[in-house]
Amino acid sequence: MHFPRLSDWLVYVAIIVAVIVVAIARRERSDAPPPPPPPAAGEGLPLGPASPFDPSVIVEAPANPEPGSGTAFSIDERGVWITARHVVDGCKRAAVVVGDGRGVSAEVRIDPHGEVAVLTTEGGAAPLPVALGRTLRRGERAYHPGFPQGKPGEATSRLIGRENMVIRGHGERTESVLVWAETGRTDQLRGSLAGLSGAPALDDAGRVIGVTVAESPRRGRIYTTSPETLVSALKSANERPHPGAVGESVTTTNYGIVSDSLRRDLRVARVICLDGV
Q1: What share of the chain is helix, strand, coil (3-state, %, to 5)?
Q2: What is the sign, positive or negative, of the torsion defined by CA atoms of 99, 104, 110, 111?
Q3: How much is the pTM?
Q4: Cα–Cα distance between 193 and 191 in angstroms, integer?
Q5: Cα 152-89-242 angle, rounded to 5 deg
Q6: pLDDT mean for each 10 residues of the chain (277 residues)
Q7: Is residue 40 part of a domain?
Q8: Domains: count for the chain
């Protein structure tokens, strides 16, 4: 039997292919492994520092603010409380409400540079722990116990990022704030969260990571102070959080119960401006 004779060019092609296969098989590979997939929509990424290039939100502050009410929380059982600046700004007399028709007179110290006020009373309540040094991450949850619309209530939210809050009018300034997407609130609570201003923003360990200062109902946003603002306000007032304060674990299923407990123990209380009352 005779096989057909291969042409010379087929022989040459076969030799070249064999040489290439051997060369590739013996070549050293030092490629880096493929990168991990990025987190969805930036969730879980550390929150960056404040920047003048962050988006801005404009707030018009009246020249003569009316007496108001909001929320305060204890940071020292000696009688040191934190609230939002606009709740007591221009207030000659303020009080922390401790029961029906009863309040304790509070001295007001306004932070000249941020949306925080420090209150001091004769005696106080067990303090909330404050965690201002830890890294915040986009997508993490916060809980806001207080007195929306002047009644006991709370909300929960997830961190979106930073914005620059531009205050126009009384107390004109620009400061960095944290922006949160509201994801839940007290059952049957409708409309504005007014009165929640000054409430603590708590992490899942029950530690304060900011002060609730504003909302945007149409956008479903809640704004809190940045950790830097609260640190600056405490330093300006020559106060510091109680080092031994202990928080309670908070989840989406128990934050209503935890909020009720904080209000009952007056660790979170209503604050009112008495001018004109």
Answers
A1: 20, 35, 45
A2: negative
A3: 0.81
A4: 7
A5: 65
A6: 56 67 57 49 74 75 68 96 92 89 91 91 94 90 96 96 83 87 92 94 96 92 92 90 90 96 97 76
A7: no
A8: 1
